[in-house]
Write a structure and sequence with these properties.
This protein is of the alpha+beta class. It has 5 helices and 5 strands, in the order ααββββαααβ. Strands 1, 2, 3, 4 and 5 form a 5-stranded mixed sheet that branches. Strand 3 and strand 4 form a beta hairpin. The longest helix has 22 residues. The protein is extended and about 85 Å long. It starts with a helix and ends with a strand.
């Protein structure tokens, strides 16, 4: 073959190979964001109580009040940033409303979303939730997520979505709270 043919072939192979490497680079680049395990361990129970109380991502249950429905949430930390007394935690949350219906665990609604929670120690040692930021719906979702998360936090969120490692439903926590056996899976509530 002529030198020109080899050059074209080599250039094409380089472009294809470079494209394949770039397309798979999300697996390793950018590197995982920083997560201070001590900060996360202190912040998660506070965030969980705040979210389950209905002051951020959940709404009143549509199941009958006689069933005493409750919201339960599970959180997966993406990134922690501590600046003075303020702590910012990027995470993905999954919340579902649950109730016990005889020997069954039932659920009627749920939400899964990334959030940015800002906490503050203030003058006390205990953390307090100051603000929960959620992304916009629809076309504004990605731009608002880009404003909320750091580049590394956003890349980690995307990585987890591609791998299917998002936050799962809190069925186990709800089953324990309602006195049901471990491993009980929630069924969809049907109004009668």
């Amino acid at each position: 073959m002529k030198a020109r043919t080899w050059s074209v072939l080599l250039a094409a192979l380089t472009l294809v190979g470079g494209g394949a490497v770039w397309r798979e680079s999300w697996r390793v680049w950018p590197p995982e964001p920083d997560v201070d395990r001590n900060v996360a361990r202190a912040a998660l129970p506070v965030i969980d109580r705040f979210l389950e109380s209905g002051r951020a991502v959940v709404w009143p249950s549509s199941m009958p009040a006689r069933m005493r429905p409750r919201w339960f949430c599970v959180e997966k930390v993406i990134e922690t940033v501590q600046r003075g007394s303020q702590v910012r935690v990027s995470l993905e949350v999954a919340c579902n409303d649950y109730a016990r219906d005889g020997g069954r665990l039932v659920t009627h609604a749920g939400v899964r979303t990334p959030v940015m929670v800002t906490l503050d120690r203030g003058g006390a040692a205990a953390l307090t939730v100051r603000h929960v930021a959620m992304p916009s719906d629809g076309a504004g979702f990605r731009p608002s997520l880009e404003r909320m998360f750091s580049d590394r936090g956003l890349a980690e969120y995307d990585r987890r979505r591609r791998r299917g490692e998002g936050a799962g439903a809190p069925d186990g926590e709800a089953a324990r709270a309602f006195g049901l056996p471990a491993g009980t899976k929630a069924q969809q509530f049907q109004a009668q």
